[in-house]
Design brief:
- It is found in: Cytoplasmic vesicle membrane.
- It comes from Neodrepanis coruscans.
- Pfam families: BAR_3_WASP_bdg (PF10456), PX (PF00787).
- Keywords: Cytoplasmic vesicle, Membrane, Protein transport, SH3 domain, Transport.
- By secondary structure, this protein is mostly helical.
- It has two domains: about 130 residues, Phox-like domain (PX Domain), CATH 3.30.1520.10; about 190 residues, Substrate Binding Domain Of Dnak, Chain:A, Domain 2 (Up-down Bundle), CATH 1.20.1270.
- The chain has eleven helices and six strands.
- The strands form two sheets. It has a three-stranded mixed β-sheet. A three-stranded antiparallel β-sheet has the order 3-4-5.
- A hairpin with a 2-residue loop joins strand 1 and strand 2.
- Helix 4 packs across helix 10, helix 8 runs antiparallel to helix 10 and helix 8 packs parallel to helix 11.
Length: about 425
């Protein structure tokens, strides 16, 4: 019964994605020739490095391997597809020990399809990777990991649920054109579990990555030429529409999660109990009938006893059903609630860039800024807008794929369930044919 507790999510604080402060993006003195800073209003914008980038303060050497391309697709800006797509399975969670058995942990077997080589990773390795990626990519929604748990970590139900959550997480990582090709993620997937030295070297390299914060935006290349620049008013309208969409989706996901959770709890406890109560009552009736020793009653007594067993079995079917259909839906909702928690910060970065453009235009009109500088601000805002719209497009694409697949699975499992119930009732019915 304790399995089905409603999980609620509080709204994240601005800047909660843990992005590092940009170099020189703190409290530089204002001058009449620059766009004024407002550290409080767009705290995420500042922390993510968006402000330093838009104002042209970011500088760094971008290697070919760091370049990220946004292209124009049929639905607008999109991340350039990964030319070598792959998947990665997460199987066989096993309990392992270290320090001569003093410390226990669960290790998961990962098998990426592009290498075919299995590696073992602990939850703390996933957690480290998540922290690196959330810091590196200010306008990409890095999927949240299943929640940590201090007690009951080695219980079978918890391990199974966590493995499923990690499998969803891994699917979203592999499906993202940018995250899938990131060096830190590839290191996580391919470094042999037994090579502690190589693991630490790759870890240090990822932690020293300079293309984070403001410098991350330098790695993005966007379409150029006629017709490639974005209409900022249109961008603002699209982002506002997406903001309204995510708010509504978040509310409805919470509502569905609550409803599914409540329904699953009723099936595990209430429905099972009620059906088995009916079964018990039929059994009592058949036992009462057995007191009549007449030979012609035996068939009826057996049929009623069988009906009692059928209702008992149907009760068990109800109790087991949520793990087949409702649990997977709630796992998916949990993953998407993580994405929805990321988007306020992503939107703030984009909104901050738009505000700087508006301010720079006003400063040009007032003679406080040169046109060339304002055009540079607009150009860099364009890059953030392209990346944000590409991320929004990716989110919708994956959302349609996931919810289609999950709803099909849910309905297929529901149909199978009712077929099993019908079969039990038909078997019971046929017992009366020869009475």
């Amino acid at each position: 019964p304790g399995r089905y507790r409603l999980s609620t999510r509080s709204e994240p604080a601005l800047g909660s994605r843990g992005a590092g402060l940009p170099p020189g993006g703190g409290g530089a003195a204002k001058s009449s020739a620059t766009v004024s800073r407002n550290l409080n209003r767009f705290s995420t914008f500042v922390k993510s490095g968006g402000e330093a980038f838009v104002l042209g303060e970011a500088s760094g050497f971008v290697k070919d391997g760091d370049k990220l391309c946004v292209v124009l697709g049929p639905r607008g800006p999109e991340w350039q597809e990964n030319p070598y797509p792959f998947q990665c399975s997460i199987e066989d969670p096993t309990k392992q020990t270290k320090f001569k058995g003093m410390k226990s942990y669960i290790a998961y077997k990962l098998v990426p399809s592009h290498t075919g080589q299995q590696v073992h990773r602990r939850y703390k390795h996933f957690d480290w990777l998540y922290g690196r990626l959330a810091e590196k990519f200010p306008v990409i929604s890095v999927p949240h990991l299943p929640e940590k748990q201090a007690t009951g970590r080695f219980e079978e139900d918890f391990i199974s649920k966590r493995r499923k959550g990690l499998a969803w997480w891994m699917d979203h990582m592999c499906s993202h054109p940018v995250l899938a090709q990131c060096d830190a993620f590839q290191h996580f997937l391919t470094c042999p579990s037994t090579d502690e030295k190589a693991w630490k070297q790759g870890k240090r390299k990822a932690e020293k990555d300079e293309m984070v914060g403001a410098n991350f935006f330098l790695t993005i290349s966007v379409p150029t030429g006629p017709g490639a620049s974005l209409d900022l008013q249109e961008v603002e309208s699209q982002v506002d529409g997406f903001k309204a969409f995510t708010k509504k989706m978040d509310e409805s996901a919470l509502q569905l999660n609550h409803t599914a959770n409540e329904f699953a709890r009723k099936q595990v406890t209430g429905f099972k109990k009620e059906y088995q109560k009916v079964g018990h009552s039929f059994k009592c009736l058949s036992q009462a009938f057995e007191l009549d020793q007449q030979a012609f009653s035996a068939g009826l007594n057996q049929a009623i006893a069988f009906t009692a067993e059928a209702y008992d079995a149907i009760g068990d079917l109800f109790a087991d059903q949520p793990r087949q259909d409702l649990d997977p839906v709630m796992d998916l909702l949990a993953l998407y609630q993580g994405h929805l928690a990321n988007f306020p910060d992503i939107i703030h970065v984009q909104k901050g860039a738009l505000t700087k453009v508006k301010e720079s235009k006003r400063h040009v009109e007032e003679g406080k800024m040169e046109l060339q500088k304002a055009e540079g601000i607009q150009e860099r805002c364009n890059i953030i807008s392209f990346a944000t719209l590409a991320e929004i497009n990716h989110f919708h694409k994956i959302r349609v794929r996931d919810f289609k697949s999950q709803m099909q699975h849910f309905l297929q499992q529901q149909i199978l369930f009712f077929q099993k119930v019908t079969q039990k009732l038909e078997e019971a019915l046929h017992k009366y044919d020869s009475v």
